[in-house]
């Protein structure tokens, strides 16, 4: 079972429907024990970084996520969920994140409309099971004002450009993050959710 983490800040039902369309079972939950015991975890997110961390702490989900990450279970962070995997965000001051990946979350530069909303071409940095069967330079749907700046460039799986070139996807082991929304990215987005579901199934 894949747990979709409900901490009050995500497109939960869209992600759940996307996983179902890809042929896999998922449950939307805010129960820490369910998250910690799941075979795979998806952390979606829309909104402010500080609010997200506060919600994770107040619901007891923060410890559960640390347990899942430390065990190396399949994990997918989407949009804000990807940003939360990093050490710190510069949104409204500085707020510590989960710290799984080294690096910072920075605001998109001036000179472009923020938030960034729309389809952008994504260039893969190399092969990844998350992008299996998906052509390089496929377009995915983005909605965000901040981007991740990884300290370890080897975790960058894909890049895009909007005012600045930045990581569109990161990963190490079975832990992944995507800045775009696969649940809003039509056929190829569903393919990503399916690839993640297969990764979970292979680990059972």
TrEMBL record:
GO MF annotations, alphabetized: glutaminase activity; imidazoleglycerol-phosphate synthase activity; lyase activity
Which reaction does this chain catalyze? 5-[(5-phospho-1-deoxy-D-ribulos-1-ylimino)methylamino]-1-(5-phospho-beta-D-ribosyl)imidazole-4-carboxamide + L-glutamine = D-erythro-1-(imidazol-4-yl)glycerol 3-phosphate + 5-amino-1-(5-phospho-beta-D-ribosyl)imidazole-4-carboxamide + L-glutamate + H(+); L-glutamine + H2O = L-glutamate + NH4(+)
**EC number from the UniProt entry:** 4.3.2.10, 3.5.1.2
Q: Which residues form the active site?
A: 79, 181, 183
Q: Does the keyword Amino-acid biosynthesis apply?
A: yes
HAMAP family the record matches: HisH
**What does the subunit comment say?**
Heterodimer of HisH and HisF.
Q: What is this protein called?
A: Imidazole glycerol phosphate synthase subunit HisH
Its source organism is: Thermodesulfitimonas autotrophica
Designated gene of the protein: hisH
């Amino acid at each position: 079972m894949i747990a979709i983490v409900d901490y009050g800040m995500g497109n939960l039902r869209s992600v759940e429907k996307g996983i179902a369309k890809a042929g896999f079972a998922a449950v939307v939950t805010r129960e820490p024990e369910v998250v910690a015991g799941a075979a795979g975890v998806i952390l979606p997110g829309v909104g402010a970084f500080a609010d997200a961390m506060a919600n994770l702490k107040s619901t007891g989900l923060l410890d559960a996520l640390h347990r899942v990450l430390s065990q190396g279970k399949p994990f997918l962070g989407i949009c804000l969920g990807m940003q939360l995997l990093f050490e710190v965000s510069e949104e409204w001051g500085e707020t510590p994140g989960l710290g799984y990946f080294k690096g910072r979350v920075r605001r998109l530069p001036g000179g472009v409309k923020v938030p960034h909303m729309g389809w952008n071409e994504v260039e893969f940095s190399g092969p990844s099971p998350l992008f299996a069967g998906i052509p390089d330079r496929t377009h995915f749907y983005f909605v965000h004002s901040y981007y991740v700046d990884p300290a370890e460039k080897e975790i960058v799986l894909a890049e895009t450009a909007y005012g600045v070139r930045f990581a569109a996807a990161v990963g190490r082991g079975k832990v992944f993050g995507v800045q775009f929304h696969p649940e809003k990215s039509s056929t190829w987005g569903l393919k990503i959710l399916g690839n993640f579901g297969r990764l979970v199934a292979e680990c059972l």
